Amino acid sequence: MQTSADQTSFTAAPGQPDAGLKWLCFATLGWAVLVLQAGGFTTSIQAGMAFLDWPLSNGSVNPAGWLTEIDKFAEHSHRLAATGLGLLCIAIAIGHYRREPRRGVRLAAYALVGLVILQGGLGGLRVLLDNLNIGGDGNLKAVSFAIAHAINAQLTLALLAIIAASHTRAWRQANTDQPRERLAAKIAVGVVFCVIIFGAVMRQNRFTSWVSTPNLSDLFLPAGDGLPWLINLLHRTGALLAGLTVLIFAATGERRARRWVPLALLLGAQISLGVLSIRLPLNPHVRTIHLVVGAALFSTLCAQAALVHRARSAQA
Q1: Please, are residues 185 and 249 in contact by the beta-carbon 8 Å criterion?
Q2: Which end of the chain is more exposed for a tag (fewer CB within 10 A), N or C?
Q3: pLDDT (tens digit per residue) in 27-83
Q4: How many C-beta atoms lie closer than 10 Å to residue 21's C-beta?
Q5: In angstroms, what CA-CA distances link 73 with 37, 70, 129, 130, 222?
Q6: Total domain count for the chain?
Q7: How far apart are alpha carbons 181 and 255 in whole angstroms?
Q8: What DSSP element (H or E) covers 141?
Q9: Are residues 224 and 186 in the same domain?
């Protein structure tokens, strides 16, 4: 049996991106954003338990009322879109097995399928272990799986963005050794990921502490006390630190001109949406867009970080 490395008739010319795999990855990335938006909106309107069963919805792929009731539409459309994403990721893995000569990129494509399968399992456990199904006073199990589901969604999107970036010309260009640039990338990714974790804990526990006073300081010193106040404080102040690390990375290295614009625009939009979500606490669309833009920022950042860490070889 021929290996993928031997199938030269199916691969791109050495040093050239594979156009077919590239556009499949970017199309899947666009679809993944829609899946994330559907999931974020479902959480924002608290519709995650619109159906008590999984993977079917009320025992059907076309449950009654899902086109007319907003909570059922949000949850079922998210499930349908996620199924489509899984199929696309399987297609990516098969395409890379057949046409991608770089072992590291092939392994990343296989890992993507693993993350998508894990994501489905986490979402299912979030439903099946909810206290509406198993009873009890608390809901720690379901909330824990919901938090893991939210975090894994960000990791899945980020890995997909990295795989898509690996099929661009910029990826195949020679890379000079820039230790400070790589360090800045690692710090920025780490800090932003921590902020994402705090945000997931906030959303899934409904810990968000809203303020309505016009004082600017209240945006970073939330109302309330206890664990909800602490998580809000960590998320908001962490966002400031994350923004600083992203800007430092954007301004570091030989390719700073190429990464400055997208990272700065996404960062500015994300901070603005965060402030707006505090001022409009009853608007689920603002909170959902805040989630989606945050994912776009994290994915772009991860792709840029991978770009500066890639091996020097054009085939690495």
Answers
A1: yes
A2: N
A3: 999 999 999 999 999 999 999 999 999 999 999 999 999 999 999 999 999 999 999
A4: 23
A5: 13, 5, 22, 20, 33
A6: 2
A7: 10
A8: helix 140-165
A9: yes
**Residue 285 scores a pLDDT above 80:** yes
Record the tokens describing residue 61, joined without a space. Answer: 């792929």
Give yes or no: residues 306 and 214 share one domain. yes
Q: Is residue 44 part of a domain?
A: yes
**Closest alpha carbon to 292 in 280, 277, 309:** 277
Which domain-ending residue is among 106, 133, 167?
167
pLDDT of residue 130: 95
Q: For residue 126, is it within any domain?
A: yes
* Lookup result for tokens 């894994």: 152
- Count Cβ atoms below 10 Å from residue 270 Cβ, excluding itself: 26
Lowest mean pLDDT among 171-175, 279-283, 289-293: 171-175
**Phi and psi at residue 53, to the nearest 5°:** -110, 170
Tokens matching residue 301: 């950042």
What would the two tokens of residue 188 be? 């920025």
**If we measure between CA atoms, which residue out of 178, 197, 169 comes closest to residue 305?**
178
Give residue 79's pLDDT.
97
Question: Could you tell me if 163 and 181 lie in one domain?
Answer: no
Average pLDDT over residues 150-159: 98
Sign for the CA dihedral angle at 84, 87, 89, 91 comes to negative
Query: Is residue 101 pLDDT above 80, yes or no?
Result: yes
Final residue before a domain boundary, out of 117, 138, 167: 167
Q: What is the pTM of this model?
A: 0.89
Q: Is 99 exposed, middle or buried (0-12, 13-18, 19+ CB in 10 A)?
A: middle
Compute φ and ψ for 57, nearest 5 degrees: -115, 110
From CA 28, how far away is CA 175, in angstroms rounded? 27
- Whether 5 is covered by a domain: the verdict is no
Can you give the residue range of the structural domain that contains 277?
A: 176-316
Hey, how many other C-beta atoms are within 10 angstroms of the C-beta on 58? 15
Q: What is the pLDDT of residues 171-224, one digit of tens each?
A: 887 566 688 889 999 999 999 999 999 999 999 998 876 554 556 656 667 767
Task: Tell me: cis bond preceding 214? Omega within 30 of 0 counts.
Answer: no
Residues 123 and 246 in one domain: no
